[in-house]
Amino acid sequence: MARRAIRKKLRGWWPTALILLAACAQTTRPQGDTGLEREVLVSAAASLSEAFAEIEAAFEAAHPGVDVVANLGASSTLREQILQGAPIDVFASANIANMDQVVSAGMTAGEPAVFATNLLQIAVPAGNPGDIAGLEDFARSELLIGLCVAEAPCGAFARQALASAGVVASVDTNEANVRALLVKIELGELDAGITYVTDVLSAGGTVAGVPIPDEHNIVAEYPIVVLADAPHPSAAAAFVAFVLSTEGQAILGEYGFSSP
Amino acid sequence: MTAAGLEAHVAVRRSDAFRLDASVSIPPGTTAALLGPNGSGKSTMVAALAGLLPLQSGSITLDGEVFDDPGAGVFMPPEMRKVGVVFQDLLLFEHLDVIDNVAFGLRSRGAGRGEAASRSGLWLERLGVGAMARRKPGDLSGGQAQRVALARALATEPALLLLDEPLSALDVAARADLRRTLGEHLSGFAGPRLLITHDPTEAFLLADEIHVIEEGVITQSGTADEIRLQPRTRYAADLAGLNFVKGVARDGAVDAGTHTLRVADRDLEGPVVVTVHPAAISVYSDRPGGSPRNVWQTTVERVEQVGSRVRLLTGPPLPLAVEVTDAARAELRLEPGARVWVALKATEIRVQPEAAM
Amino acid sequence: MTSSRSPRPPVLLVVLGCLGLVFFAVPFIGLLGRVPWSDLPALLSGPVVGDALRISVIASVAAAAIALVIGVPLAWLLARAEFPGKPIVRGIVILPMVLPPVVSGAALLFALGRRGLVGEPLEEATGLLLPFSLWGVVVAAVFVATPFLVITVEGALRSMDRRREGAAATLGARPWTVLRRVTLPAIAPSVLAGLALTWARAFGEFGATITFAGNLQGRTQSLPLAVFVALESDRDTAIAISLVMVVVSVAVLVALRDRWWGAL
């Protein structure tokens, strides 16, 4: 799995400053042979990290002269940044709820489109030391169990799934985003957590997945939209189009996402 | 057989520039003074004797017990030595009451609270500062603080007493007062006592034997009278208030380089030191007649009023300090620049061979 | 009307000083401006704030106490003892001040986590698990805050007048007595000032806490973590909690007054 241009990966709140600097440097300057702006700033949910890295590389190859700057984090964090006025071009959220808040604030240009779906999966360290078979095991207090914070889509969905299965989970930590949760599971510090199918895939051999039955599982719909105040509207539109294109969808499929 | 008293042969390098190399031997019940200018190594000696500065070579023994002997690999740390020190800056513990300061040594050596407090109280009373027992050192006057420091050193009943410039920070009145107190307590102390000072009066009044120290080396040792009447170095002569000239003796004359003096001793030959009391020199406006064998003309360079006497400093060929009366000064119109004749009898000139120390 | 006692400060200094003051004051004024004063009692009485306050206070005080016990001896060794590799040791001790707290938290996880270098045998032997517990919060705080105490105390030990220690020795005090009755009282103001800094750093610690101890209300969610979580869901609560932190911090630091700050 390709991890390109890590230097452009920014997580959390830091990117706001960098983005502001970048935005100041780039005013309305149609550049490049495609008539697109030099840059496009994309805020994407943490669970899209690897998939979007490859999409970014493919897009830049198809549109030379355009630089994709990815800002990754929990969708709730990204949503706040946008509502506070961060100069972002494209928002790809891990759930509809966060996107809806941006829509209600009138900050989107056009309707968001769902470009991928994801399913939840139980993540355990390789070898499943806690002997987790399903959601019921989340009630065992002797295990160390982690979820995402309730505000993050991953956390909200996980709680819905547990409620649906009637399990009162003995949670030991609520991590800030799904990647932080995944790292602790990879390290073996946690016995189990609920992440996305795509996250388990991305961790390779260090994390194993235990499926959640369909009747309790939540289908996470990932909407994407160009923002109304996008500093680079043409490049933004081109990027969204790419994500929705066959090529973009194929890449997403590679990483475990399903089509909408 | 153990020798009582302090036997110290101290060789210590304090820094790149300074080295102390001095020996003192102090019998119990006597006070020795180490008298010298600032920077001569006096405080270094205190540090070495107290154990705060290890020797490089030599040895320190008190009542037969070895404190420090690098050659034999013996070093007794300060807390094991029974030495009482009054430091130049007193170094009282500012955060403790006066009585706790005095009790510090007793408590450190294992005495109980009550016993330490009562013994300390007694010492403070003896030194006249009993009323200050519950105050802090910061509240004390110079004289009071000095007494507390002395009480603190004496309370542990040490075997050796070291006093570093005990009176130097005081004003004239307090100094005389404390000097008396100090004298009393020193004579009541059974062990050897070493007094460090740059004040000759202090040394002459309080010490049984005086060691003059200059640039890390002891240049002269003796009683107060010996130092006063027969100083062997310029510094010692200054202390005694005498004129000091170095020269070479031959046939009843001393060649001092710029001038030759006729002296009474015809047998002395070789390098000598010459001392002359300022009052033994007479001043005239014209060439005098009579017996003085040393007469020469010179210029008055400085005139100083010292109490009720006048002190002149004359210039070449042989600069000397001369003491005259007020009347003489007025009569001879002695001002800087005046040309005068000085006369000096050979018998008033004391000559000593330079080598003998 | 200027008093005849204090000299007038140079104008440039006053101007720059005022700019500095404004720089620090404006964010707090901004915060105060957003406080929902009428809702404050309701917001602060919820379990989230109560739990977080309890955890923060216990952890920061415990961390300061532990920092004192391990920091003062460490400072003494660095200031007074001779041993090879001293600059390296000092560098290691200062490192948590320089590293991003999240990196410190990750390092703690690798060392003291359930699968950690020391943590794994520790758990097998004693059943003690540090991450995801209040002790984890304390450990994270000790790790990032102790360097402040070490630096302050080492500085004090180096710059103090050591002659009184010599005087105490001549009075018969063994080295431990000298330390207890002369050295420590002499540096006490610096130790207290350093302790204040240490407590403050422990109180505000976020990155190492969330990485090492995790985030669970009632167990490991300290005030800074509670603010972080609330910021995305319930801004009013976040602001209310921030206010609590500001008030507690200002109260403690003001209570120390000039006397001890002067010793820093």
Give the rounded overall mean pLDDT of chain C.
Answer: 89
Could you tell me the CATH topology label of the largest domain in chain B.
Answer: Rossmann fold
Subunit organisation of the chains: heterotrimer
CATH architecture of the largest domain in chain B: 3-Layer(aba) Sandwich
Assess the beta-strand content of chain B as a share of residues.
25-35%
Uncertain stretches of chain C: none
Assign an overall shape of chain C.
Answer: globular
Low-confidence segments of chain B, given as residue ranges, are none
User: Tally of extended strands of chain C?
Assistant: 0
N-C termini distance of chain C: 32 Å
Count of DSSP strands of chain B: 21
Strand order of the biggest β-sheet of chain B = 7-8-9-3-10-11
**N-end to C-end Cα span of chain B:** 30 Å
Describe this structure as you would to a colleague.
The complex is a heterotrimer of chains A (260), B (357) and C (264). Chain A is of the alpha/beta class and 260 residues long. Helices cover 35% and strands 24% of the residues of chain A. Chain A is built from 9 helices and 10 strands. In chain A, helix 2 (49-62) packs antiparallel against helix 9 (246-254) and helix 3 (75-83) runs parallel beside helix 4 (96-104). Chain A is elongated and about 60 Å long. Chain B is α+β, with helices and mostly antiparallel strands. In chain B, a hairpin with a 2-residue loop joins strand 10 and strand 11 (217-222). Chain C is mostly helical and 264 residues long. Helices cover 78% and strands 0% of the residues of chain C. Chain C is globular, with a radius of gyration of 22 Å. The chains are: A alpha/beta (260), B alpha+beta (357), C mainly alpha (264). The A-C interface holds A 74, 76-77, 79-80, 144, 146, 149-151, 171-176, 180, 184, 187-189 and C 109-110, 113-115, 129, 131-132, 210-211, 214-217, 219-220, 228-229, 231-233.
Name some characteristics of this structure:
heterotrimer; B: 357 residues; alpha+beta; Rossmann fold; OB fold (Dihydrolipoamide Acetyltransferase, E2P); 2 domains; 5-stranded antiparallel sheet; 9 helices; 21 strands; 33% strand; C: 264 residues; mainly alpha; MetI-like fold
Brief write-up:
By secondary structure, chain A is an alpha/beta fold. Chain A has helices at 15-25, 49-62, 75-83, 96-104, 153-164, 178-186, 197-202, 233-244, 246-254; strands at residues 10-11, 39-45, 67-73, 90-92, 108-125, 145-148, 173-175, 192-196, 207-211, 219-227. Chain B folds into two domains: 6-237, Rossmann fold (3-Layer(aba) Sandwich), CATH 3.40.50.300; 242-353, OB fold (Dihydrolipoamide Acetyltransferase, E2P) (Beta Barrel), CATH 2.40.50.100.
